[in-house]
Design goal:
- By secondary structure, the chain is mainly beta.
- The chain has a single domain, classed as Rossmann fold (3-Layer(aba) Sandwich).
- The protein is 9% helix and 43% strand.
- It is built from one helix and three strands; from the N terminus they run βαββ.
- The protein has a three-stranded antiparallel sheet with strand order 1-3-2.
- A hairpin with a 5-residue loop joins β2 and β3.
- It starts with 8 loop residues before the first strand and ends with a strand.
Length: 79
């Protein structure tokens, strides 16, 4: 957050906690998986432009391919 200038935009996509059951990649440790609530709690100081959980096809190599559950976030740093 310190490196983001006022008015700067943060774009984030992370595996959601629901990804654990999919077997299409991502960590199995819940501490490394996200929820919308976790994002809101951890990224204070940003105006939320977009925050949702969705499913999408990922092709990120041999162990990260298939339908995935992700959290997508776009936020703008407050002035």
């Amino acid at each position: 957050m310190q490196s983001l200038k006022p008015g700067g935009i943060l774009i984030l996509e992370a595996y959601s906690e629901n990804q654990r059951a999919r077997g299409t990649g991502g960590p199995s440790d819940l501490d490394l998986l996200m929820t919308c609530v976790k994002i809101e709690r951890e990224l204070t100081g940003l105006e939320t432009i977009l925050l949702h959980e969705t499913e999408r096809d990922v092709v990120e190599g041999k162990f990260h391919t298939g339908m995935a559950s992700v959290i997508q976030f776009i936020g703008k740093k407050l002035d």
